[in-house]
Design goal:
alpha/beta; 286 residues; 37% helix; binds pantoate; 2 domains; Rossmann fold
């Protein structure tokens, strides 16, 4: 294991200069954008970056522009010291960008990035301003770092699709790697928001993964009618007393358009509130 400790930088301009110098030496840069409260899912992205790039940068920034009023911006966990300790346990991360909001959005900042199409449904319907906020901060992080490859988790499937579309539509040169979902032993997808669950809710939360497994099995057994699969998933999720479904979708994996018949590759996506905590998960089938 490499034992280097990351250099923690708050000023994006300082990081840009350091990375530009490394790029001039021919080094490749890997970027892992995060909002902190790092878990094994994030660390798997870091390991991927280390295996593919010469220099790894992890950004830790709870991005205000992707939260709507009334969402969890204020209470989102901010645990920089614990995050740095987790990164030390992996080793080999050269830089951590940990800016304050004013470093990313200085006085007078007034720019917008809107990606159409794939942003409209699902999360876009429930959180209409969310992906504009994600797009603006991710584009800034790409520009600050000049990354060759950026790493995102499949857990935020639609986010990864939006970012891939932004890269295509705006001719960005960064390559995007989407890495598999990392799960707890009982199937719950790792997420910084799992910390909000009470012990009772935490016991109910694996129902999302059980519903996805049920869909996968039904489709493997020949189900082609999305309505029938969704009905069975709803019934299963309904058995968890604290669960309230925002959406269940069976969609084309590239466009995220809803399918009216399952006859090839599909992605099953769902958003479910467990008590006050909104969880998302997905699975590509078959
Ligand atoms: O997935 C996240 O944690 C965030 O949406 C991201 C990509 C770091 C942008 O703030």
């Amino acid at each position: 294991m490499t034992t280097i400790k990351p250099e923690v930088i708050s000023d994006p301009r300082v990081l840009s200069e350091r990375l530009a110098a490394l790029r001039r030496e021919g080094k490749t840069i890997g970027l892992v954008p995060t909002m902190g409260a790092l878990h094994e899912g994030h660390l798997s992205l870091v390991r991927q970056s280390k295996s593919l790039c010469d220099v790894t940068v992890v950004s830790i920034f709870v991005n205000p522009t992707q939260f709507a009023p009334g969402e969890d911006y204020e209470k989102y966990p901010r645990v920089l010291d614990a995050d740095l300790a987790r990164l030390d346990s992996v080793g080999g991360v050269e830089f951590v960008l940990a800016p304050a909001p004013k470093d990313m959005y200085p006085e007078g900042f007034d720019a917008h990035v809107h990606i159409g199409g794939v942003t409209r449904r699902l999360e876009g319907e429930f959180r209409p301003t969310h992906f504009d906020g994600v797009a603006v901060v991710v584009l800034k992080l790409f520009n600050i770092s000049g990354a060759d490859i950026a790493f995102f988790g499949q857990k935020d499937y639609q986010q990864a699709a939006v970012i891939q579309k932004m890269v295509r539509d705006l001719n960005l040169s960064v390559k995007i790697r989407v890495c598999p979902i990392v799960r707890e032993e009982d199937g719950l997808a790792m997420s910084s928001r799992n910390k909000y669950l009470s012990p009772g809710e935490r016991k109910e939360a694996p129902v999302l993964k059980r519903a996805l497994d049920l869909a996968r099995k039904m489709i493997a057994d020949g189900a082609t009618d999305p309505a029938q699969v969704k009905h069975e998933m709803r019934t299963l999720i309904g058995s968890a007393p604290s669960a309230a479904i925002d959406y269940i979708s069976i969609a084309d994996p590239d466009t995220l358009d809803e399918l009216d018949r399952i006859d090839g590759k599909a992605v099953v996506l769902l958003a479910v509130k467990i008590g006050a905590t909104r969880l998302i998960d997905n699975m590509i089938v078959p």
